[in-house]
Amino acid sequence: MEIRTVVVGQLAVNCYIVIDDATRDAVVIDPGDDPDIVAREIIQAAAEPKYILLTHGHMDHSFTAGVLQESIDAEVLMHEADVPQLDGDPEIAALFYDTSHHIPPTLGRFVSDGDTVSFGESRLVAIHTPGHTPGGLCYHSGSVVFTGDTLFAGGIGRTDLMGGSYDDLMESIREKLLTLPDDTIIYPGHGPASTVGRERMTNPWLLQAMSDEQ
């Protein structure tokens, strides 16, 4: 798989274009802003997007998914529990986006834990990781995992917003992500990439949680 990263919006979200090498079929993960830039990157990559995948419903990851969907005709997939997150807070959204031109995405099938998203000869397996939001999803394939706002390099997702739960988040990370091989590359929703092993050994939030459990 080829992975292209486009950092979008004022909140610097990592939007990923994941492309099957054999067919150039692709998925776009979290196109929260700058749909024109994302669409241009898709054209430059000679990719054919089949799906737009939302790791969760927060506006910085989802707000312009509907605009991009209109231009690339791709099915938008997310976890059903996060649909209420798409509405967000209009007053907060207006601080970051031109809300007068907002186009809500047309949602396709809902994705649950263990579901597979296939494109060309590639596939991503959904991992339900509630905590940052109730319907948070990560997407795993081979040696890579796209973690949205569940796990960052040196950090974890915030849990003080609607539907957040610190206990759920830590359980998701411990039971769903730290069980992956240490050399699995983490592609998070914000910031630089990391690996499962590096986060296990150096992430202060995870080290503190493990210390508290002893």
Layout of helices and strands, plus pairs?
Blueprint: E1 2-8, E2 13-19, E3 25-29, H1 35-44, E4 48-53, H2 59-62, H3 65-72, E5 75-78, H4 90-96, E6 107-110, E7 116-119, E8 122-128, E9 137-141, E10 144-148, E11 151-152, E12 155-156, H5 166-177, E13 185-188, E14 194-195, H6 196-202, H7 204-213
Parallel strand pairs: 3-4, 4-5, 5-6, 10-13
Antiparallel strand pairs: 1-2, 2-3, 7-8, 8-9, 9-10, 11-12, 13-14
Helix pairs in contact: 1-3
What do these coordinates show?
This protein has 214 residues and is α/β, with parallel strands linked by helices. It has helices at 35-44, 59-62, 65-72, 90-96, 166-177, 196-202, 204-213, and strands at 2-8, 13-19, 25-29, 48-53, 75-78, 107-110, 116-119, 122-128, 137-141, 144-148, 151-152, 155-156, 185-188, 194-195. Helices cover 27% and strands 30% of the residues. The longest helix has 12 residues, at 166-177. It has a single domain, classed as 4-Layer Sandwich (Metallo-beta-lactamase, Chain A). The strands form three sheets. The chain has a six-stranded mixed β-sheet, covered by helices on one side.
